[in-house]
Amino acid sequence: MSRRASPPSVLPLIPVPSPLPKESDYARRVRQLAELHDEIHVCEQCVAAGYLPQANTVGATRGRIGDAVMVVGQAPGHLSVERGIPFAGPGGVILDRWLQQAGFAPGALHREVYLSALTRCDPGKNPRGTGDRKPSPPELALCRQYLLRELELVRPQVILPVGGMAIAAFLGPQRLEDVIGEAFERNGALLLPLPHPSGVSRWLNDPAHQQLLARALGRLAVWRISGQSQASDGAVP
Ligand code: SF4
What SS3 class is residue 61? Predict the structure, then answer.
């Protein structure tokens, strides 16, 4: 595999475009999103650049135009790739349970939420074999365009970055305890950081951190019932 010049390791924050109603230019957005999904599915950029031995994106459609909520994770795991479904593993079960705590129906994660990620191929295990390898800065740089284009087409009202890497991509490096439970307004959209639902994360073992998660889900519940402005005004149960 030939290695190209490395992309920059420090990336600008992911910009959040303003939300759009489903009806706005719907046919064009649907067509372009389908084209984008096809493009992601056959992407081999990280293989060509020598960062991955093989490309293995999740084949399934990741969501629809009109999804008001977008989850942004780190990268798919091997179960998601095997099953062709984003968030197909235990983390997805937990995330769906968190959504239920915020008032969503069971199964809403895969039915009515757009599922995105910083990178789209399974990075494999970390060298210690204790969990998934984090995508490297060059992989993040190469894959970034897909998330930017999804955001531009889907225009969600709420973005849920899950885990430290996704949170940092939107907000810069942060301690989880400083941002979980907080709401950030960006161009009329609501950013609600969540911890990573993976069982590998020990952050939620601390009862105080569980309370921060409950606060974040409370904000999501407020948005769901009353609209974004109240959730970002601190009207939290
Ligand atoms: S991680 Fe992203 S940029 Fe890299 S090969 Fe997969 S889809 Fe392409």
Answer: coil
**What would the mean pLDDT of 42-59 be, rounded to a whole number?**
91
Does residue 49 line the site of ligand 1, with CB under 6 A? no
Instruction: Look at residue 197 and tell me if it is in a domain.
Output: yes
The DSSP call for residue 205 is G
Tens digit of each residue's pLDDT (9 = 90 or more) over 153-195:
999 999 999 999 999 999 999 999 999 999 999 999 999 999 9
Ligand 1 centroid to residue 218 C-alpha, Å: 34
**Range of the structural domain that residue 117 is part of:** 26-231
Output the pTM of the full model: 0.91
Indicate the top mutation candidate among 119, 122, 144, 145 to test ligand 1's pocket, ranked by most ligand atoms within 8 A of CB: 119
Mean pLDDT of 1-7: 50
Q: Give the chain's domain count.
A: 1
Residue 16 falls inside a structural domain: no
Secondary structure, 3-state, 129-172: CCCECCCCHHHHHHHHHHHHHHHHHHCCCEEEEECHHHHHHHHC
